[in-house]
Write a structure and sequence with these properties.
The protein is of the alpha/beta class. It has a single domain, classed as Glucose Oxidase, domain 1. The protein contains seven helices and 13 strands. The strands form three sheets. Strands 1, 2, 3, 4, 5, 7, 9, 12 and 13 form a nine-stranded mixed beta sheet that branches. The chain has a two-stranded parallel ribbon with strand order 6-8. The protein is elongated.
Length: about 230
C-alpha cells in the first residue's frame, strides 16, 4: 500500500495490566504459544543493552523509504510506555534516527522501546543505552525529511503485520507482535508454558528428561535407524 499523509492520534490500547504481565515472559515462550508465526525477521535485532524485556502497545509509523518526517510526528504524539514500530519500506541505505531523537524519546517521552525495520546511527553511544532499541543495521547516512508518511496505521515490520495498539514484546532473541484482541487469551497459555519450560530445562540439565517421544515420532515418520557406519 502506498504511503499516505495521515496521522491518527487515537488507538485501541491493550489493558496495561496485561502488558505488565507479558513483560515478565521470554519472547520465545510466548511465540511458541502463537503457532510460531508472530516473530519479526532476525534482521530486526537488539542493538542496545537493556536489562529486561521490552513490552508495550505499538505506536506505528509508516515512512517513505529513507525519510523520517513521520518519525518526527511520532516524537510529538507518542505516549509513555509506547513501543514505536517503524516500517521503512525495506530501505537499508539511510539511517532513520540517531542519538538526538532517541534522547527525546527516552528522557522526555519515556517510551518502552523502539523497533525499526531499517538502519540507525550513533551506535557507539546507543549500544550502551538501557532503552531497548531494535533495528536492522547502522549507517552514517542520514534521512530525508520530506514525507510522505503515516502514523498509527497498520504496518509490516520485520515481515510481521502490526496494528496500532498490538502488544510488542522483545528481548535478546528478537521481537514478536501479539495482536491486541488476542493478548488476554494468549497470556495464561504463555505463563503456563513458561513454567513448564523452566521445569523442562532443569530435567534436561540433570539428564532426567523423558525423550521416549522422540523414538516414537521417528518411527511414525519412517526414519531408519541403522546400527552401522555410513557406506557410500
Amino acid at each position: 500500500m502506498p504511503v499516505g499523509k495521515r496521522i491518527y492520534l487515537k488507538r485501541q490500547l491493550p489493558d496495561p495490566k496485561i502488558v505488565e504481565q507479558y513483560a515478565k515472559l521470554p519472547a520465545a515462550n510466548v511465540a511458541d504459544c502463537m503457532e510460531r508465526g508472530c516473530a519479526m525477521h532476525p534482521r530486526v535485532k537488539l542493538l542496545s543493552s537493556p536489562t529486561g524485556e521490552m513490552a508495550g502497545p505499538a505506536f506505528t509509523v509508516h515512512t517513505r523509504a529513507g525519510d523520517n518526517l513521520a518519525i518526527y510526528a511520532a516524537l510529538r504524539f507518542c505516549s509513555p510506555g509506547d513501543v514505536i514500530v517503524i516500517a521503512d519500506e525495506g530501505d537499508d541505505t539511510r539511517s532513520l534516527i540517531g542519538e538526538v531523537m532517541m534522547s527525546w524519546l527516552r528522557d522526555v517521552k519515556k517510551i518502552a522501546g523502539i523497533v525499526i525495520d531499517g538502519p540507525i546511527r550513533d551506535i557507539d553511544n546507543l549500544s550502551q543505552w538501557k532503552l531497548p532499541i531494535y533495528a536492522t543495521s547502522t549507517t552514517p547516512g542520514g534521512p530525508y525529511k520530506e514525507g510522505p508518511g503515516e502514523v498509527n496505521v497498520p504496518v509490516s515490520c520485520g515481515n510481521v503485520s502490526v496494528n496500532p495498539g498490538d502488544v510488542i514484546l522483545g528481548d535478546a532473541d528478537g521481537v514478536i507482535c501479539i495482536p491486541r484482541q488476542d493478548a488476554p487469551a494468549i497470556l495464561p497459555k504463555a505463563q503456563k508454558f513458561h513454567q513448564a519450560d523452566e521445569a523442562k530445562a532443569i530435567s534436561f540439565s540433570k539428564g532426567t528428561a523423558d525423550l521416549s517421544w522422540v523414538d516414537q515420532t521417528l518411527k511414525e515418520k519412517g526414519f531408519d535407524i541403522i546400527d552401522d557406519i555410513y557406506r557410500p
